[in-house]
Amino acid sequence: MDRHPGGPTTIVAWAGKDASKFFNEIHKGVKIDSYLRPESHLGNLGVDGDLMSDEFWHTLREARIVEVREEIDRVLSETAKDGHKADSLPRLLQDKNLDPQLKIKLQRLETQKRAALDSEDYTKALDVKKEIEKILSDQAHAHMHDVPLDIPNSSGGIPLSEVARHNKPHDCWIAINKNVYDLTDFLIHHPEQRNSILAWAGRDATAMWDKIPGRFPSKQWMDFFMRSEWKMGDVGAEPKRDAVYEQLKQLHDELRRLEGPSKEDIEAAKTAVKVPGKTDAPTLSEEARFPKLAEISAGKELPFFTRAEVAKHTTADEPYMIIHNRVYNLKPLIGSHPGGDDILLNKAGTDATKDFEVFEHSEKARVQRDRDMLVGQLVPGENTDWSAEATVAQVVGEETSEVGRYMKYKATDIAVGAVAWYLYKTLQNTKPLSQFTYSRALRHLHLIMAVGIFGAVGTAQAASHSEGQTRKQMLWWHKQTGLAMLFALVVRFFLRMQSGIPPRFPGNPMVQMLETQSLRAFYVLALLLPVSGIANEYFLKWAPGSDKTGNAEDDKRNDRLAKQSIDAHKLLSKFLQFAWLPFHLGYTTFYHWTQGRGVVKKVSPFI
């Protein structure tokens, strides 16, 4: 699992299942023997396990484990009597005649080596291995074992059985084209190639020679990376096998296959007993949040797609998209999507779950999506677990960086400082104003709405240039600012009716007429912009649809009105940004200011 180039997730997804079809689709006819070591093969698929009860199976398994252990003890005791010496460290540690102090020391070093391997500290693991070999090569202990320590005589060749012993990250030998290479040092300094090399550690990789040019093992890779000192020698003939060694190896292999989780462990895993006082992890599962979705797909036989297959469907004729591990054909949505077709086509062929959740689609929209556009699901090995606690950030966004947190704190400091300055200036300017000018309340509201307009425009622009959680936050602030501006507009209308009106600045009658129309346009924009946004939300989420009326035409009508609302909202916002604001601020205000007229003083609350 730790050497699979695709990571352990795919393997875990198929654990306990028949993955033949999925494996063949991915690896296109390459036999599994090319990827796995011989010891991974447990046997051929047998009869259905239901023919034997779990209780009887565990009884047979435990009885056989006792038999195998007794057989191993018997062979080891006979081996000691016949003068056979241990030819591996595990067999040496099982020798009953081994000095207890030496056994404890070797076991401690083996534990240290295992811990170093688990933490991927291969340099330390190599040092521990050398220390073990130093102890075993000592004259006081050398006569007790036949554990191979030194490199075999390269003149006679290195047998593949010797190469097979060096199959770890801290001790990696590989045979290529009848030559044996020690790639341990390369792995330590090039961890990015660890998976592809460790897949062949202790094996003959000639079968994969030049299958992938530029990758290990290939001629280009050898020419670029290989160094002459890494060559250990040629592949030699296999030595005569010791019958006792072969018998012990078979017994140990059988014991390894039999040993595993106990009956109690298996039952505990099946019942999934919860720890008292421990709450469930938060879930973001779509079907858990929207139960009606399960009714839509119930009983459907959905075909499987790989992500690579979905990535091929990016045209307007067949735009596919992945949302929550399901595949959708978005063609029915082209031309009627409230957000426009561009946003759909830009994400076609990709996993758009994060972007889909950012816009908080309603249950009605999700039901309609599954009913009209669902065409398949991802293969289990490529699923993303959106309901896992560790992947909550994948939906709601990534964790804020240090720079982001710093800027957030600074923005808060600036906002607090601005409010403090505003209150200070307000308390400094409290004298009554003339009845022939704007009231102080109307002046304060004018300034607040000016800040709100720039806030609404700024958050909309920020949302259009961001993704994930940042985009979601910007959209939330944009909506809240729009609602606040709608409320302020109502208050401003009543204050405007009660306030005095200052005389107009002199100027060309045409310019004065444009200024008047600009002020009227402000009231229209301040009203229609939030109303169109609210209408879009209403038709998308709350308007009665086919789920309540039973008429599918209601869904089409709601989609059409939602799209018209958001299109109007976008058109009005562009007019505000590129026509009204430049004229009202850029021309009117700047023109009167250059003429020496108190345009700021006319509306400022701080006088």
UniProtKB/TrEMBL annotation:
The keyword Cell membrane applies. It is a multi-pass membrane protein. Signal peptide: none annotated. Keywords: Cell membrane, Heme, Iron, Membrane, Metal-binding, Transmembrane, Transmembrane helix. It is found in: Cell membrane. It comes from Durusdinium trenchii. It holds the Pfam family Cyt-b5. Residues 158-236, 302-379 form the Cytochrome b5 heme-binding domain. SMART domains: Cyt-b5 (SM01117). Belongs to the cytochrome b5 family. This is Cytochrome b5 (CYTB5).
